TrEMBL record:
This is RecJ OB domain-containing protein. It comes from the Bacteria. Residues 4-70 form the RecJ OB domain. It holds the Pfam family RecJ_OB. InterPro entries: RecJ_OB (IPR041122).
Amino acid sequence: MPHSARVVGQGHLKLRLASADAVGPAVDAIGFGLADYLPEIEQGKPFSACYTVELNEYRGQRSVQLRLLDVRWE
């Protein structure tokens, strides 16, 4: 379930996601070119996500990030 969602850059979707069963911590995610999904996410529509796990480095800070490849609405 998304904790926050917004559009960044040129049409990219930035999210903070947690598992629907709330097991484990929330993780940052980015979907390049997936900004069109934002309205459904903001409406609270449940979804499954296809992603890869990567190491993000931004301004000298490193963190684990999910790279969203696609979303499937439940």
